[in-house]
Backbone:
């Protein structure tokens, strides 16, 4: 079941530094400018469910499986459309 779909509108200048470490940080396009420099910024859209272990995330044509969800992950996702992804294999994150 798809709970969220969005379009990337900007990739901050320092986002690649995080990607090189296997981390992708996302913020909605309403994020403060000082946060946008290190994040992937996406267009805000309606959220229709919660992120759960076992969910799949598709970035471009790369599919990643959710293996853990933090205690406040869904709250942050709904309130700030903020999330980040740790990739265990960096090559799977080469999608930008």
Residues:
């Amino acid at each position: 079941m798809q709970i969220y779909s969005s379009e990337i509108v900007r990739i901050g200048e320092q986002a690649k530094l995080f990607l090189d470490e296997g981390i992708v940080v996302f913020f909605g396009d309403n994020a403060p400018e000082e946060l946008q420099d290190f994040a992937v910024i996406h267009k805000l859209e309606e959220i229709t469910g919660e992120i759960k272990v076992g969910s799949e995330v598709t970035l471009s044509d790369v599919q990643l499986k959710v293996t853990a969800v933090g205690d406040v992950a869904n709250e942050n996702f709904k309130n700030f459309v903020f999330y980040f992804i740790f990739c265990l294999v960096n090559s799977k994150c080469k999608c930008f």
